[in-house]
Amino acid sequence: MAHLALLIDDVVVQVFPLDKSSVTIGRLPKCDICIDDESVSSIHALIKITPNELLDGHDDVVIYDMQSTNGVVVNDRKVERCQLHPNDVVAIGWNRFKFFDEQSQGRETTVLMMLD
Questions:
Q1: Of 57, 83, 112, 116, which one has the fewest beta carbons inside 10 Å?
Q2: Which long-range contacts link 56-62 to residues 24+ away (Cβ below 8 Å)?
Q3: C-alpha 83: how far from its chain's center?
Q4: What is the mean pLDDT of each successive set of 10 residues along the chain, which is 116 residues long?
Q5: pTM, full prediction
Q6: What is the largest CA-CA distance in the chain?
Q7: What is d(CA 39, CA 46) in angstroms, rounded to the nearest whole number?
Q8: Given this model, what pLDDT does residue 55 score?
Q9: Antiparallel, parallel or unpaired: β 33-34 and 22-26
Q10: Which candidate, 73, 101, 82, places its Cα nearest to that of 15?
């Protein structure tokens, strides 16, 4: 299962499981991941989790900016849409998260072997 870990000074302070096919991030209480911070839009981002078409048992995790005021930044690059990979750092307003996905361990190796 995939997770987003909230970081403060590079220390994990809270972990959010990505256990649904779509997860909303924002300031509104109805968001799956609610962040009480003025730098975060009401509904700031959406994460969609879909089965990978080529690798059985693996999911693709994609984050979308929902036309937020401050944008979504993945690994220091502002994005509108981005597939997440293990250890990616996601900035939502002033908040930083690290993406973890135990399911993807070794996935890069598998893809490389398929190309050989």
A1: 116
A2: 57/103, 58/103, 58/104, 58/107, 59/2, 59/101, 59/103, 61/2, 61/18, 61/99, 61/101
A3: 8
A4: 94 96 98 96 98 89 97 98 97 96 60 52
A5: 0.86
A6: 49
A7: 16
A8: 87
A9: parallel
A10: 101
